[in-house]
């Protein structure tokens, strides 16, 4: 996602893929156990919110 080939489609495609994967309970469990939520939050939080948090 750092250098998407099509910037306007990169994020929606990634979100769609992640949503599809997280439909599986074993994937959700693995995602939570590996701190996926903590890693994902900065990527989906709007920049204005991130600045106010810091």
Automatic annotation (TrEMBL):
It holds the Pfam family V-ATPase_H_N. One of its GO terms (cellular component) is vacuolar proton-transporting V-type ATPase, V1 domain. It comes from the Eukaryota. One of its GO terms (molecular function) is proton-transporting ATPase activity, rotational mechanism. InterPro entries: ATPase_V1-cplx_hsu. This is Uncharacterized protein. The lineage of its organism: Eukaryota, Viridiplantae, Streptophyta, Embryophyta, Tracheophyta.
């Amino acid at each position: 996602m750092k250098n998407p080939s099509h910037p306007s489609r990169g994020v929606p495609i990634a979100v769609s893929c992640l949503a599809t994967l997280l439909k599986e309970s074993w994937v959700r469990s693995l995602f939570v156990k590996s701190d996926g939520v903590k890693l994902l939050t900065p990527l989906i939080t709007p920049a204005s919110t991130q600045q106010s948090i810091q």
